[in-house]
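Handout, page 2. Input:
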Amino acid sequence: MPDRIFLDKQTPTAFKALTSTATEIRAKAREVGLDRVLMELVNVRASQLNGCAFCLDRHTQLALDAGDTAQRLGVLPAWRETDLFSEKERAALELTEAVTLVADQHPDDATLARVRTVLSDDEASVVTWAAITINAFNRVSILSGHPVRPRRSATDPEPRPNA
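Output:
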Protein backbone atom coordinates (compact mmCIF):
# COMPACT_ATOMS: atom_id res chain seq x y z
CA MET A 1 0.00 0.00 0.00
CA PRO A 2 2.50 2.60 -1.17
CA ASP A 3 0.01 5.50 -1.12
CA ARG A 4 -0.58 5.18 2.63
CA ILE A 5 0.94 7.41 5.25
CA PHE A 6 2.13 5.52 8.31
CA LEU A 7 0.43 7.81 10.81
CA ASP A 8 2.52 6.51 13.70
CA LYS A 9 5.72 7.45 11.86
CA GLN A 10 4.46 10.71 10.35
CA THR A 11 3.20 12.12 13.66
CA PRO A 12 5.13 10.18 16.30
CA THR A 13 4.23 12.44 19.21
CA ALA A 14 0.52 11.73 18.75
CA PHE A 15 1.21 8.01 18.49
CA LYS A 16 3.39 8.17 21.60
CA ALA A 17 0.49 9.80 23.48
CA LEU A 18 -1.83 6.98 22.36
CA THR A 19 0.76 4.42 23.46
CA SER A 20 1.02 6.17 26.84
CA THR A 21 -2.74 5.86 27.20
CA ALA A 22 -2.51 2.12 26.54
CA THR A 23 0.27 1.82 29.13
CA GLU A 24 -1.87 3.64 31.71
CA ILE A 25 -4.84 1.38 30.97
CA ARG A 26 -2.71 -1.76 31.46
CA ALA A 27 -1.53 -0.41 34.82
CA LYS A 28 -5.09 0.43 35.90
CA ALA A 29 -6.28 -3.01 34.80
CA ARG A 30 -3.71 -4.63 37.08
CA GLU A 31 -4.67 -2.23 39.89
CA VAL A 32 -8.37 -3.14 39.70
CA GLY A 33 -7.68 -6.87 39.26
CA LEU A 34 -8.42 -7.39 35.56
CA ASP A 35 -6.05 -10.02 34.19
CA ARG A 36 -4.06 -9.81 30.98
CA VAL A 37 -6.13 -12.52 29.25
CA LEU A 38 -9.36 -10.55 29.73
CA MET A 39 -7.71 -7.35 28.50
CA GLU A 40 -6.40 -9.10 25.39
CA LEU A 41 -9.88 -10.52 24.72
CA VAL A 42 -11.07 -6.90 24.63
CA ASN A 43 -8.32 -6.01 22.15
CA VAL A 44 -8.93 -9.03 19.92
CA ARG A 45 -12.72 -8.67 19.87
CA ALA A 46 -12.66 -4.97 18.98
CA SER A 47 -10.04 -5.68 16.30
CA GLN A 48 -12.24 -8.44 14.86
CA LEU A 49 -15.22 -6.10 14.66
CA ASN A 50 -13.10 -3.41 13.01
CA GLY A 51 -11.34 -5.80 10.63
CA CYS A 52 -7.86 -4.70 11.69
CA ALA A 53 -5.50 -7.47 10.56
CA PHE A 54 -2.39 -5.88 12.12
CA CYS A 55 -3.97 -5.52 15.59
CA LEU A 56 -5.58 -8.97 15.33
CA ASP A 57 -2.20 -10.53 14.62
CA ARG A 58 -0.52 -8.66 17.47
CA HIS A 59 -3.19 -9.12 20.14
CA THR A 60 -3.96 -12.74 19.29
CA GLN A 61 -0.29 -13.52 19.92
CA LEU A 62 -0.32 -11.44 23.13
CA ALA A 63 -3.43 -13.32 24.30
CA LEU A 64 -1.72 -16.65 23.69
CA ASP A 65 1.40 -15.40 25.47
CA ALA A 66 -0.80 -14.38 28.43
CA GLY A 67 -2.17 -17.92 28.67
CA ASP A 68 -5.33 -17.88 26.57
CA THR A 69 -6.03 -20.81 24.27
CA ALA A 70 -6.34 -21.13 20.51
CA GLN A 71 -9.77 -22.70 21.06
CA ARG A 72 -11.14 -19.69 22.92
CA LEU A 73 -9.64 -17.25 20.44
CA GLY A 74 -11.06 -19.30 17.58
CA VAL A 75 -14.62 -19.10 18.92
CA LEU A 76 -14.37 -15.51 20.15
CA PRO A 77 -16.65 -14.14 17.39
CA ALA A 78 -19.34 -16.50 18.75
CA TRP A 79 -18.58 -15.98 22.46
CA ARG A 80 -22.27 -15.81 23.32
CA GLU A 81 -22.74 -19.34 21.97
CA THR A 82 -20.17 -21.04 24.23
CA ASP A 83 -19.51 -21.63 27.90
CA LEU A 84 -15.76 -21.07 27.46
CA PHE A 85 -15.76 -17.52 28.84
CA SER A 86 -16.22 -16.46 32.45
CA GLU A 87 -19.03 -14.17 33.54
CA LYS A 88 -16.53 -11.30 33.89
CA GLU A 89 -15.08 -11.95 30.42
CA ARG A 90 -18.59 -12.05 28.95
CA ALA A 91 -19.44 -8.70 30.55
CA ALA A 92 -16.18 -7.22 29.23
CA LEU A 93 -16.88 -8.55 25.74
CA GLU A 94 -20.42 -7.16 25.79
CA LEU A 95 -19.10 -3.76 26.85
CA THR A 96 -16.34 -3.91 24.21
CA GLU A 97 -18.89 -4.58 21.49
CA ALA A 98 -21.08 -1.70 22.71
CA VAL A 99 -18.13 0.69 22.62
CA THR A 100 -16.88 -0.54 19.25
CA LEU A 101 -20.29 -0.46 17.58
CA VAL A 102 -21.45 2.81 19.17
CA ALA A 103 -21.87 4.51 15.77
CA ASP A 104 -24.34 1.83 14.66
CA GLN A 105 -26.26 1.47 17.89
CA HIS A 106 -25.86 3.31 21.16
CA PRO A 107 -25.73 0.96 24.13
CA ASP A 108 -29.06 0.75 25.88
CA ASP A 109 -29.48 1.14 29.61
CA ALA A 110 -30.27 -2.58 30.00
CA THR A 111 -26.91 -3.56 28.47
CA LEU A 112 -24.99 -1.17 30.68
CA ALA A 113 -26.94 -2.25 33.77
CA ARG A 114 -26.26 -5.93 33.00
CA VAL A 115 -22.52 -5.25 32.62
CA ARG A 116 -22.47 -3.37 35.93
CA THR A 117 -23.93 -6.34 37.78
CA VAL A 118 -20.68 -8.18 36.97
CA LEU A 119 -18.03 -5.47 36.63
CA SER A 120 -17.33 -2.87 39.30
CA ASP A 121 -17.38 0.77 38.22
CA ASP A 122 -13.57 0.74 38.17
CA GLU A 123 -13.47 -2.43 36.06
CA ALA A 124 -16.13 -1.13 33.66
CA SER A 125 -14.22 2.13 33.29
CA VAL A 126 -10.96 0.32 32.50
CA VAL A 127 -12.65 -1.99 29.98
CA THR A 128 -14.34 1.00 28.33
CA TRP A 129 -11.04 2.89 28.09
CA ALA A 130 -9.33 -0.24 26.73
CA ALA A 131 -12.00 -0.60 24.05
CA ILE A 132 -11.77 3.09 23.14
CA THR A 133 -8.00 2.85 22.89
CA ILE A 134 -7.85 -0.32 20.78
CA ASN A 135 -10.45 1.22 18.48
CA ALA A 136 -8.08 4.18 18.00
CA PHE A 137 -5.13 1.84 17.35
CA ASN A 138 -7.29 -0.10 14.86
CA ARG A 139 -7.97 3.06 12.94
CA VAL A 140 -4.30 4.07 12.91
CA SER A 141 -3.28 0.62 11.61
CA ILE A 142 -6.08 0.32 9.04
CA LEU A 143 -5.58 3.83 7.67
CA SER A 144 -1.79 3.41 7.64
CA GLY A 145 -2.02 0.00 5.99
CA HIS A 146 0.26 -1.61 8.55
CA PRO A 147 1.27 -4.98 7.08
CA VAL A 148 1.02 -8.34 8.77
CA ARG A 149 4.26 -10.18 8.23
CA PRO A 150 4.72 -13.95 8.51
CA ARG A 151 5.95 -14.92 11.95
CA ARG A 152 8.68 -17.40 12.73
CA SER A 153 8.28 -19.71 15.70
CA ALA A 154 10.02 -22.71 17.22
CA THR A 155 7.52 -25.01 15.50
CA ASP A 156 7.43 -23.01 12.26
CA PRO A 157 10.97 -21.77 11.64
CA GLU A 158 10.34 -20.81 8.02
CA PRO A 159 8.00 -17.95 7.20
CA ARG A 160 4.87 -19.13 5.47
CA PRO A 161 4.41 -17.87 1.93
CA ASN A 162 1.49 -15.55 1.34
CA ALA A 163 -1.50 -17.60 0.30
